[in-house]
Write a structure and sequence with these properties.
Radius of gyration: 18 Å
Distance between the termini: 46 Å
Shape: extended
Largest sheet: none
Oligomer: single chain
Mean pLDDT: 89
Structural class: mainly alpha
Number of strands: 0
Number of helices: 4
Number of domains: 1
Strand content: under 5%
C-alpha cells in the first residue's frame, strides 16, 4: 500500500478533525455547498492580452495568497461579473 504524506495544512485539519472541531453538515448545508461548487465550474476558455507588468503583479499577488494566478484571475472575473 502506498503511504500518503500530508502537508502541514492537511495535518492541522486532520488533528482538528480528530479533536472534534468539525461538525457534520446537514442536508441543506450540503446542498448549498454542492450548488456553490457547481456554479464555480469552469467550462469556457478565453484568451486575453494584458499588460505584462499587470500580469507580473497578479502572479505575485496570487503567490502571496497561495493560489495559482489563473485561479485568482478567474475569481476576480467571477466577482466582477456577478
Amino acid at each position: 500500500m502506498r503511504r500518503v504524506t500530508l502537508s502541514r495544512e492537511e495535518q492541522a485539519i486532520e488533528r482538528a478533525l480528530l479533536r472534534g472541531e468539525y461538525r457534520e453538515a446537514g442536508p441543506a448545508m450540503f446542498e448549498a455547498i454542492a450548488q456553490a461548487i457547481a456554479h464555480r465550474k469552469k467550462d469556457a476558455v478565453i484568451n486575453v492580452r494584458v499588460n505584462s507588468q499587470d500580469l507580473r503583479q497578479l502572479k505575485r499577488k496570487a503567490e502571496r495568497l497561495g493560489v495559482g494566478y489563473q485561479t485568482l484571475l478567474s475569481e476576480l472575473i467571477h466577482r466582477v461579473a456577478a
